[in-house]
Design brief:
mainly beta; 154 residues; 11% helix
Length: 154
């Protein structure tokens, strides 16, 4: 279990150091993008939870053209953020949009009522009916907090 977290941390730090992506990136064979999670507060059971700076939302997609063979998204936190209570009532969705930015498919994740500092989700392989973009979206306590997208091209 510890090696899994070390591997994820190294991958996230490498991705963050190599490219902090806020705009969609091209996905021909493999694309990795990370977007910072902005600081926010929310209430759970009457308690105020605060997510400080230091967390990145990373989306990995592998495939060729419209064929996606692997897709994963998750949060990694460093420094003070790694000591917090994390993300409660979270879910990760994957959405797919055409070149006109119209979403035609959503793979909605399960809402997890526990609090995790490193929420993560895989999605099943699939072939998309059209080109456009594939996005991962993180919801915390029912509110969309961050997303990360990749263009799906020929």
């Amino acid at each position: 279990m510890a090696s899994h977290h070390v591997t994820r941390l190294i991958t996230t730090l490498a991705a963050a150091g190599a490219l902090v992506v806020t705009a969609p990136t091209g996905a021909h064979a493999t694309a990795i993008g990370s977007t910072p999670v902005r600081t926010f507060q929310y209430s759970v059971g009457g308690m105020t939870m605060k997510v400080p700076t230091g967390c990145m939302f990373t989306h990995v997609i592998r495939g060729d053209g419209r064929k996606i063979t692997y897709q994963n998204a998750g949060v990694d936190c460093a420094f003070v953020a790694a000591l917090g209570s994390g993300f409660c009532n979270w879910r990760i969705d994957f959405t797919y949009a055409d070149t006109g930015n119209r979403t035609y498919r959503t793979s909605r994740g399960r809402t997890h009522d526990e609090c995790k500092i490193d929420p993560m989700r895989n999605n099943s392989p699939q072939t998309l009916p059209r080109h456009g973009k594939a996005c991962a979206l993180l919801y915390v306590n029912g509110v969309r907090r961050v997303d990360q997208c990749h263009h799906v091209t020929k």
